[in-house]
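Notebook entry, structure prediction.
Reason for the run: the old model in the group folder had no record of what sequence produced it. Starting over properly, with the input documented here first.
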Amino acid sequence: MVNRNLELGDRVLESGLYIVPTPIGNLDDITFRAMKILSSADIIACEDTRHTGIMLKALNITHKKLESYHEHNEESKSALLVNEILSGKSVALVTDAGTPGISDPGYRIIKKAIEQNIKIISLPGPTAFIPALVASGLPVNEFHFYGFPPAKKGRKTFLQEVTSQKATSILYESPYKILKLIDELIELCGIDRQACLAREISKVYEEYIRGTLEECKQKLQNKTSIKGEFVVIL
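New structure, fully documented this time:
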């Protein structure tokens, strides 16, 4: 575990929007810089205040003002938070896990902040698809990140674009839909397309399933249960 006995919260942050990645599983992946910003920011905007509160408590960061900011209130909360920054406050934006804006809320407030000439400080940090790509064994010189496929409307067109790419393609999918997705990919590009399925990145049960789409499907079907969000790499 990282040494958390740092002198945190002892400085005033410059007014602005701070994009702060948080661990996707292993709390040790938090950076010292992220901890300093979270301890010093006037407001922490987060997807789930309870989830972020638990993380902050584990990091010994207390008495912070948490403001909910999620996909259902992004528009209204973006305006509120931008006004707070314009009044001279510092706002740290986090999601439940990973980097804000990457398949998580963040785009709207960043866009509004840019429109208001607000300073944006984006920290490097955890995101699931980069470690999954690096460990996949598939080409990394050129790749396209697509995030989650549409649930219904536009799904087939979306997957046709993904499978037509000559570069490596990266998707996210839930454990409940992963087998369906693999069947759809097999229908579009055949059973022999090389793939890697990564799940539970940085967690205790981290796993990489590599091989053709057909081989990956068989390995999944042999499991008694399928858990954890997947990074699918073609």
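Summary: The chain has two domains: 16-122, 129-233.
The old model has been moved to the deprecated folder.
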